[in-house]
Amino acid sequence: MGGPGDPPEGPPEGAPGGGEDEYRSVVFDESFVRAARLQEFSAQERIGDHAPAVRRRPSLRRGLSRQALILVLLIAVAFGTAIYMGVRHPYQTPAAEPADPLRMTVIPLAPQARVPGSANPEKLYAHSPAAQFRVGAEGVTLPATRRTAHFSDSQIVTALSTAKDYIVASALAPEVLSGVSVRPARMLLDPQQLDQFDQSFERPTADGRHAPTGWLVRFDPSRAELADTKIRVQGTLRAAEYDAGTLEVVADHTLVYALRPAGSDASAKASLFTVRRELQFRFDTDDLRTHQAELVASYVQAGPLSCSEDSTNHLRPLLAGQTAREGGPAGTDPFATGSATALCGSLAQSAQPEV
Fold it and tell me: What one-character DSSP code corresponds to residue 131?
């Protein structure tokens, strides 16, 4: 026997059993009803003057939910605060200590007799104290290193290598020696010294601070040029801690150049010109990282020069066969160890080639 609402003969054959299953496909859940755009008035509302049976419901907002909107606002505020604090934070970065200005002394050495010369530069070298010197950068050798209390072995090697690079760039680079460029030396200096460096070349002054020949070796191009590019070099490098945050490197090198008159041909007689440079460098951690140096002291002896000539901007060598108008107070040998102290000296005969 069929249930209530079923035909007497029972539900049709093949129909799903039970009335509830029969209408399941057309029953709407609560969320579907709430989302409907039309809503029927209630019985109480229909008693009134409502002619239509239904009313249109306001559409649901499809934007962000309130929680999502609040989250977006919080992120925006946090991001803005981070930017503001990055620009104006109360903890200012400590300023780097200013670099000490370079102190420099350039001592011309006047010959006591005529400058010896030869058309063969190799002969001059062979008969001079520079006979056993190495050629070029090979003469700037790095010593054995050992770590210190505050600096590693690799940091000390970096400091020594940078000092060597400056020596090569400032005293062996052909474009520097001829006065064509100063860039090879400039690019190796601590940025805080660049103003002093630039002022030295823009307005050279013999004030112990702004002499180009205190920074590098360069010859007056109207007077002399290299007769041999194989410059002879010998010297030492020493590294030690200056303080807990600074390494100090002291370089002491003698460089010997073969020169001849500017514009002359290869048959012209050449002569030797000797420069002894004692350079004092300092390196902080930033200098070590950037492969740059702070040059704090430069002591230069150079000859043969005339003491009456200005050696501030360029070195003006006395060449083969020339003599100085006057000499210095005593013979000074740039090949000897120890520091000389004089404003102008005499170039010892032992420092000249015997030809």
Answer: T
Nearest residue to 214 via CA among 321, 104, 77:
104
Count of positions (residues) in the chain: 355
| Distance, CA of 246 to CA of 285 (rounded, Å) | 7
**pLDDT tens digit string along 45-60?**
666 655 566 666 655 5
Contact 107, 241 (CB under 8 A): no
Question: What does the block give as tokens for 109?
Answer: 């050495």
Contact criterion met (CB below 8 Å) for 236 and 143: yes
- DSSP-assigned states of every residue in 310-337: --SSSB----TT---SS--SSEE-TTSS
- Listing DSSP states for 302-316 in one string gives EES--TTS--SSSB-
As a three-state string, the secondary structure of 246-275 is: EEEEEEEEEEEEEEEECCCCCCCCEEEEEE
3-state secondary structure at position 30: helix
Express each pLDDT in 227-242 by its tens digit. Answer: 999 999 999 999 999 9
196, with CB counted inside 10 A (0-12, 13-18, 19+), is: middle
In whole angstroms, what is the distance from residue 266 CA to residue 228 CA? 10
Q: What pTM was estimated for this model as a whole?
A: 0.71
Under a CB-based contact definition with an 8 Å cutoff, are residues 124 and 270 in contact? Answer: yes
Q: How far apart are CA 91 and CA 113, in angstroms?
A: 67
CA distance 297 to 214: 9
* Amino acid letter for position 4: P
Cα 319 to Cα 332: distance, rounded to the nearest angstrom: 19
* Residue 64: DSSP 8-state: -
Is-contact 259 225, C-beta < 8 A? yes
| Terminal-to-terminal C-alpha distance of the chain | 144
Report yes or no: 318 and 113 within 8 Å, Cβ to Cβ: no
Phi then psi dihedrals of residue 286, to 5 deg: -65, -40
Q: Which amino acid is at 289?
A: R
Kindly report the average pLDDT of the chain as a whole number.
Answer: 83
